[in-house]
Hints:
Layout: H1 5-22, E1 33-40, E2 46-53, H2 57-82, E3 89-94, H3 97-112
Parallel strand pairs: 2-3
Antiparallel strand pairs: 1-2
Amino acid sequence: MRIRPEKVAHLMRREVAEILQTRLRDPRVSAMVSVTDVEVTHDLSYARVFVSIMGGAAEREATMQALAHAAGFVRHELSPRLGLREVPEIRFVHDESLERGARVEELLKRLQDGQPVEDEEPE
Length: 123
């Protein structure tokens, strides 16, 4: 029986979020990390785990380094939870969509309030 990548991705999203919250003890990974999506290759060999990190640029960079370092631990923790013969190799990817969405909301609110809108990039 072949397991669909979408089903594995959905299960991985839930389990990785739980592992990051309860099992990972690295202080560089704050509580402000959210797993937003997981993409798994068709052969289930690789998974890209998209995370949103609230905080400044330096904090995001430190958190991404900590997540990259913890990928093997997370994969090991996933093994009994997924019930797969082989757990996909994990790569964490910073998902900027929430920050972009917040920025668009802020700009729209300024326009609605009649405030000037600067043409600048956030952090």
